[in-house]
Amino acid sequence: MSVSVGLNCPSCGGAIQISEGDNVINCQYCDSLLWVEGDAGVITVAYKNLQDRDGVLRATEQWWRKGLKAMDLKKKGRLMECYPIYLPFWSTTTRVAGWVCGYEERHYTDKHGNTHTERIPKEEMVLRDYQYTNIACDPGDLGIKYLRNNAGEVSFIDFESIPTFESTTSKDEAVELSKQRAMSDARDDARVPHVTFEKITVIPKRLSMIYYPVWVVRYAYGERMYMATVDGVTGNVLSGRAPGDPLYQSLAVTGGTSIGGLIGAAGLAFGIGADDPTIAIGGLVIGAVILGFTYMFFRHGSEIIDGDFDDKKLGNPLKGFKIAGTKWRFN
Predict the structure, then answer these.
(1) Which residues of 75-223 form beta strands (DSSP E)?
(2) Boundaries of every domain in the chain
């Protein structure tokens, strides 16, 4: 993605076009090699908010109707707030190069019925760029940690009218996190089950700050408060909390306990009849697993959660945020 950042070549005065996150470029007019830095050495871009309030509310109502949410949510849900904000995200590109050596084990049975294990040597070259995004401030209870979309119309015009949250993490932290994730992903991609030697180099290539528009919708259902967030570029729901439907919970308890109990009893009966304890144990285990899933859904089915939430605690969606350039706080 090439964007104009309002810079001119110091050699010829021509307008500079750069790709998001690039540091070294050649002037297209005089071919001078230039080093480009943004704020603290980081290129900063912002995507234009393309959604309006009505579109965001329609997207939220469509999300209400999906899944196991309360069937009367659209009728009884009461809108409390709906507003856009800009959230900062680090965008990194990290190159991993090197070798991973080791072996995998293969098991086979010979004609005499003996089982043998063979070690197959493996040597895999790793050469790949990994791209990551990570929110650059405390997300509170918004349930957003990563960008789902990394494209849009670059514009800073909405900064005058939309609250913009400042970054609370450093570029060094972002680079270090991307290096750790790239190293881990490179090992997984090499697919060497048993590693005996590795020589991997991790090289940070690009780093940029992206300010992304997100709409926050807060609504009430009964006596409880819930929230949802909507992507300001694509219009898709990113995260949210919604009330579950008691009918689904009741059906899950009734069906789950019945099926789990029947499978457990059937496994026990067949196992005793066939004098095979493995059948009995297998039936009991499967029945217990079904009962466990039933209990978990009964316990947590009263609230349906989508997004990057660490827990199920409902709190202030904007807790810990500070608006850049102002004294406003949401604590």
Answers:
(1) 78-109, 115-135, 194-221
(2) 2-36, 45-243+316-330, 248-298
Kindly state the DSSP code that residue 136 receives in the 8-state scheme. S
Q: What are phi and psi of 203, to 5 degrees?
A: -125, 110
User: Which residue has 């300001």 as its token pair?
Assistant: 232
Which residues, including other chains, have CB under 8 Å from residue 187's CB and lie 6 or more apart?
A: 100, 195, 198, 200
- Chunked mean pLDDT (size 10), the chain, 331 residues: 53 67 66 55 83 95 88 88 94 92 88 85 93 91 90 80 89 92 93 92 88 94 91 95 71 64 70 69 72 56 77 44 38 36
Find residue 219's DSSP bridge partners: 79, 226
> Rounded to the nearest 5°, which phi and psi values hold at 177?
-65, -40
Residue 242: CB partners within 8 Å, gap ≥ 6?
63, 64, 69, 70, 73, 221, 226, 228, 303, 304
The tokens 């349930």 sit on which residue?
A: 143
Q: How many CA atoms lie within 13 A of 65 on its CB side?
A: 7
Residue 69: partners with Cβ closer than 8 Å, 6 or more residues away: 242, 243, 244, 245, 304
**Distance in angstroms (rounded) separating the CA atoms of residues 62 and 39:** 40
Please tell me the pTM assigned to this model.
Answer: 0.69
Residue 140: which of 324, 319, 303, 323 has the closest Cα?
319
